[in-house]
Amino acid sequence: MSHATHQAVTTAELAPAAWEPLLDGVSIAVPAPGADVSWDLVEEPGGPSTLWLRADGTPIEVRFSVPLGDAAGYWHPRVGWHRTLLADWEGRSVASLVDGHAAGCLYDHSGATLLTFAAVDPVPETTLRFGVSEENDTYVVHVHLPASDGPHRLLLVPRAESVAAALRVLRTWFTAEVAALPVPDSARTPVYSTWYAFNQQVDAESLEIQARLAAELGCGVLILDDGWQRHGHGRGYAGCGDWEPDGAKFPDFTAHVARVRGHGLRYMVWIAPLLLGPRAACHREWAPYATRPATVPGAAVLDPRHPEVRSRIVEQCVRLVRDHGLDGLKVDFLDQAMVYAGDGAGDVGAAMGLLLADLRCALQTVRPDVLLELRQPYTGPGMAPYGNMMRSFDCPADATANRVRTIDTSLLTVGGAVHSDMLLWDPAAPVEAAVRQLIGTFHSVPQLSVRLDQLPAGHRQAIGFWLAEWSRLRPQLLDGTVEPGRPDELYTLVRSTADGVCVIDVHSDRVVPLRPAGQHEIVLVNGTPADGLTVAAGEHSRTVDITVHDPRGRIIDRCRRVLTPGLHTVPVPSMGLATLRIREGGTQ
Question: Known CDD domains for this protein (predicted)?
Answer without folding.
Answer: GH36 (cd14791)
